[in-house]
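#lab-general

N.A. 3:47 PM
ok so I finally got the sequence cleaned up, no stray characters, all 208 residues accounted for. can someone with queue access submit it? mine expired

B.Y. 3:52 PM
send it over

N.A. 3:53 PM
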Amino acid sequence: MRLQSFLKTTYVSLLFMTFFTLMTIVNNEISVFYMIYLFWFHEFIRTLISIAFYIFKRDKISDKQTYYATLKSKLFILCIYFIFIFIFFGLMLDWKNNELIIINLQVLMLQHTLFNLTLITFSLRELLLFFNDDLKNLNGNVFLSKGVIILHISIILGILIWGFLPKDWYENTNSNILSGLVIAPFLLLKMYFEIKETQYKDALEKTV
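B.Y. 4:20 PM
back already:
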């Protein structure tokens, strides 16, 4: 029953994320920073709720010392990533495109409606995991956790876009087609890792 709840929540969360992302593409209100910051914020929410789990449900955790150390490491990494993501993707990448800079600042200050709605779906999903005691185990290697791996690959993708996409095309063009082409790899990346995780949990449950 708990696994089925997790699977449904994951797929519903992905569905809403995809829908809201497509809406931002249609409205031409999206950027590379939007997607990478969205992934960062999801991992930040997951970490905060894991901290709450450590505080309020510590008795459910088998290795409390490792759990606490993992949380500290993850918070530190997220802080470093936040600075890099904001400076490079929020400012430098879109510096010559005023519309994208405005979008980035709206996203940063949580003034972007569709971005905020996506965060709400992520938060509800993580809260369900909290109440179902599904946060009692964390990957001790922070760099190999799903959320951080998504961040790593997203940052690499963003740098590749900045390095190989013609600057005039990206900086001076505001089109739905361009937005869709640029954002599609990030969206597919997130969906791939989330679906893989659900399949792994499903297979693990069947072997028990």
